[in-house]
Every structure is written in structure tokens, then in C-alpha cells.
Amino acid sequence: MKTNNKVCGGLYTPKVMETFKNPHNYGKIKNASGIGKVGNIVCGDVMWLYIKVAQNKKKEDFIKDIKFETFGCVAAISTSSIITDLVKGKKITEALKITKDDIVKTLGGLPKIKYHCSILAIDALKEAIKDYNEKK
Question: Helix 14-21 to helix 74-87 angle, to the nearest 10 degrees?
Fold first, then answer.
């Protein structure tokens, strides 16, 4: 497969392929502070996002650890990996400001038909934070 830094002809960027082949933060967190599970009935992708929340010296909640399990395509796995990189160590309020566009930009682009994967990753994060807040 030929790839370059542009998404064209339905090909993935090198960053997408790298995070697909070597995803960061894959796995489960036992006793997670919050769990988000989302899916897309059309494509069949399913994501679980596990967060461990702690408090910093200012008593602000932050994401101490984050892991994912995703059953889906290249883009679904890559966006899951990238969301974990983007929010790990951030305060909850900062993590909630991450957008699908931040994910797509970090990956160097996605084919338009795969943008829904970045939305799934954002939704999984929001669900995990919602679950955490409901447990507090």
C-alpha cells in the first residue's frame, strides 16, 4: 500500500497507520473511575474507553490513566489511540474541550467516510467522564 502525508484516494496517512499498528494505551483499567462504551450500528465499530481519575494539588480532577478497547476498522483503532494520547494527564475540563477536529488533525487527516470514527472517540470520552461524574 502506498501512503503519503495527504489523505487521497481513500488511503490513510502514515500517522493513522502507525497508531493502528502500534496503538497506545490499549487495554482495560481494573476499577476504572469511569467507562464509556459507544458504537456505530452502520459500520459495526465498538469502543470502550476506561479512565482513572485523580486529583491534583489544587483538588482538580484529572485523567491519571486512560485505556481503550476497540473492535473496528483502522480508523476506529487509530482514533481510539489518539484520544488517549490527547487527554492523558489533562484536567477533566480540558479533556472535554478536545474535538473530533483535534483528533483528525493529530492523525494528519482521515478520509471523509471515516470521520465518524473521530466522533465515536469523542463520544466514548464523554461517556466515560459522565460515568465518572455519576459515580462521584
Answer: 90
